[in-house]
Amino acid sequence: MRHTRSWTLATWLCATVCSLAAQPVLKDDPQRPVAQISRDLGIQPAQFRACFAQVNPSPAGQRPESDRTHANKAVLLTCLRQANPAITNDSLDQVMDRYRPGGREAQMPPPGR
How does DSSP classify residue 111? Predict the structure, then answer.
């Protein structure tokens, strides 16, 4: 009985940790301050949401790979410029860094990649 209980606990723990690790990334994260970002970019919140829906963000707490960062930036900037041609790479970086948890550092790929 004792071995069964410890195996059951171990199985439950593994299942819990594995399911948490496999949580999908929210495309429309409720923590993302869409109204503020949109205002700073000079677009409507719906326009930002539509553009960001095409981005493939890294799971929370993980730094993005360099390829992912560049691909996401290309998709997002191209779409946002359709809503406001005045948006530049630098202005997008400034706005996103302002509202990103951890700022610009959190967007940088891990060292050596």
Answer: T
Q: Could you identify the residue written with the tokens 């948890």?
A: 101
**What SS3 class is residue 100?**
coil
Burial class (CB in 10 A: 0-12, 13-18, 19+), 48: buried
Contacts of 71 (CB under 8 A, 6+ apart): 56
Alpha-helical segments (H) within 22-88: 34-41, 45-52, 66-83
* SS3 readout for 87-104: CCHHHHHHHHHHHCCCHH
Q: Whole-prediction pTM value?
A: 0.64
Phi, psi of 3 (to 5 degrees): -65, -40
pLDDT tens for 23-43 read: 444 455 667 899 999 999 999
